[in-house]
Model the fold of this input.
Amino acid sequence: MIGAAEGRATGLHYGTFDYSACVGVSAAYQASDHPAADHAKAIMQVAAAGTGVRVSDGSTNVLPVGSTEHVHEAWRLHYGLTRRALARAYYQGWDMHPGHIPTRYAAVFAFYREGFETAAKRLSAYANHVGGDVMDEPATAKALSSYLLRGLQCGALDGAEVDALTGMTRADLDRFAAPRRGDLTATTDR
Done:
């Protein structure tokens, strides 16, 4: 389908409740972390790999409304599902209620802040051919750079702090994130 769209498809959206209902999942178990959901999203992810088409994770229907206790419970659920999606490389998602915005922001921000130092040091070690306790290769350098770029794009990371830990400019990160043929072992000019 992506090929047939001839460049018009820019994203694939996982519809949690439509898909779950279609395959017979009981309403009480329809959620973006159900095994049927994981399978469908993994298939979408594989189909979109290398095409530039993004996969968007589905939502939760548990709304942060009502008593303080219920709102906090709904926020914990949404935060956990958002973090889970990020860890599984679903960097886009959507929400059913404006009350989900605070937890989406918190989950995204925390995801990039918590992994920042490790990712920056690994990419710097790779780019500068420094040995360590992890032996990375070009594909992982691409993933590390992409992680840092997404952290910058969402505002969780600051360019100066990324530069300080990696020794790389934004242009350097872009080269690692989208290497040209023969440029898979690109190093910085610093």
In short: Strands lie at 11-13, 54-57, 92-93.
